[in-house]
Design goal:
homodimer; about 220 residues; alpha+beta; 5-stranded mixed sheet; two-stranded antiparallel sheet; 7 strands; about 40% helix; about 20% strand; globular; DNA-binding
Amino acid sequence: MPAARSYSQFCGLARALDVVGDRWSLLIVRELLISPARYGELYQFLAGAATNLLADRLRGLENSGVIERRLDVERGCVVYALTEWGEGLREPVEALVRWSAPLVAAGRGQDAFNARWLVLALQAIAGDRTSPRPVAIGIAVDGAELTLRRDKTGTSVTLGFAPRPATVLSADPETVFSLAAGVISVRDAVTAGGVEGDPRELAAVFASTATPPPPSGSGLAIP
Amino acid sequence: MPAARSYSQFCGLARALDVVGDRWSLLIVRELLISPARYGELYQFLAGAATNLLADRLRGLENSGVIERRLDVERGCVVYALTEWGEGLREPVEALVRWSAPLVAAGRGQDAFNARWLVLALQAIAGDRTSPRPVAIGIAVDGAELTLRRDKTGTSVTLGFAPRPATVLSADPETVFSLAAGVISVRDAVTAGGVEGDPRELAAVFASTATPPPPSGSGLAIP
DNA sequence: CCGCATCCTCATGGATACTG
DNA sequence: CAGTATCCATGAGGATGCGG
């Protein structure tokens, strides 16, 4: 029963952090923003969270009304999913992802990677850009398949090729993150060898490259 | 030298939390989003953070390039301030403040309060609303003075009455938060006695009340 | 197997005293 | 005033156990 240590401040940010400020909490939310998942899947995705902590955080988030247990009828099992209120965390989480562009641009280093996380990154960035025309491209990265689809209703990023887009290319994780973060142009990514296949559709998606201000500090080097 | 424990995940959110995910870090950012401040002021505003933790977090945020020490020429002292990159945290922080609306609507309880925090809350919400016309109102709350000013360039919220607005009224903290969060209408606030003075300008500012979905959980009661 | 609960160790947070 | 130094409480991390 690890009591959520409260800031005890009558302030929106403090109250929000009382709910999702504990370690691992927002990363659990991240996974559920990508898709509902069962306990074992979360344990696998988070890769490093102790099982008791995961159980603690899940119970806490459930008690706070951020997540709920749902019955996955297709798989016939219980999955964790965000409540309607919890879905509202997409905005601040995507804003943090955008803010972190210079941090991911520093390179992967020895860090773990899961292609799922690119779904959120691409939504956070590509969701902003106005579409000149409908487009659907597939990106094969790290053994996974991402589909970026854009039509009149908006932009969506999903896992898997279903249906298979006309244009499919492969790229490495760092290149996709850098493209999404807007710290590299498609042209530079291609010449650097980070992309294989016809990148013309990709160039259309990541046309407007918004370069974020680089962090001035020196403590950002990835060892 | 408390090493920032890293998630070691090649993901924007994880990298961001490696920088600002430690306890108290985002609350320090909150204070500096409102105004630069010196060490003692931060220690006072945060009201509860141990001095060694405050020093640790300040050093960590400085090393990461989020904040920097600046010379306040007017006061002739050193203050902490956000770097340009650190200013970029305004978006995710304000998004968290908006998300927390149901949490602050639960009431103040025994929590500490500082009128400074209303500056951020009002900016987070009022900044969204399109202005029908220029307006400037003063709100006296908890011994402090807030000025909400709106012109062609946008909406700003500042501490102090300078220059003094034509319309000045007083309100209690909970009412202002609830108005900003959009969980109560100006009409209801007035009839409940939370506002003193002519609230007509106030009604113009908080015209469009966006009611957030309430949290479904039961763990949100403020003792 | 999956979904947790228990146990133990140690890093981190919190309160107070102290110093340049 | 702006932090350091110290000491204790607490939560994180890892291994393992256990019931369904």
